[in-house]
Amino acid sequence: MTATAFFTPDGDGFAPTAIARGPWGKTISGNYVGGLLGHVLDRAVDDPDLQPARLTVDLCRPAALAPVQASTETIRSGRRLRLVDAVLRQGDAVVARARALFLRRGDQPDDRIWTGPISMPPPPPVPDPIPPGLTQLVWAFGRADLPPDPAQGLVPWQHTGPKHLWVRDLLPLVGGAELTPFTRAAMVGDMASSLTHFGPNGLQFINADYTLALARLPRGPYLGLTALTHVSDAGVATGTAALVDENGPIGTVVANAVSMPGFNPPTPKDYAG
Question: 7-104+132-271 has which fold?
């Protein structure tokens, strides 16, 4: 039976389905861990005028393909902000935790404030038919000799040069629950690590955390990332990416990582048959 979501509700927690597996082994993919933290944080705040402005996700240890328990705690609640923590546990072990800052929306100043230009290719059309085995459409832009195609996986990033991606979700994160804009942004935020730390020999760094900063929630079905910086030394790396939707930039992501060679990006043959 084909899974229709990455997690199913499981009592007070969530059970991952087979498609939640990540590329580093029999563990839950980091972007779905981050997405699940975003999901529970989103549900913990019931004020629609509070804008999720910052999400910091700590990936404390690999999350096994087994049920996880989630809890949230409001750290501070004021007139203009709310600070909420979320924790994911498997048994007695904390596998991931996050802190989200929500700010109250208000009047926008008239000043025009300088910002650096963001260059992003337009989002591609959805392929028809969709390549089999894909649970998200991810178009990787990079090498000039490889046009963007979801079936190529991350191979176009195997170069020393600019890198971008567009993502369009095909499935809900949690069965029976709406995939909200904040949850979508939380999932894509984890991808900034791969994007900014990818090189000619593939991905040599594994993500330890990421911080997503949002000026507004995404609109429309597409979310994109464009790599801005990568700095690394002695096996420690930090990367910055701009987050965009079809209307333009909406925020940034900073991802920290440590060296761990051995990631093999998907290739077209992985989706055959």
Answer: Porin (2.40.160)
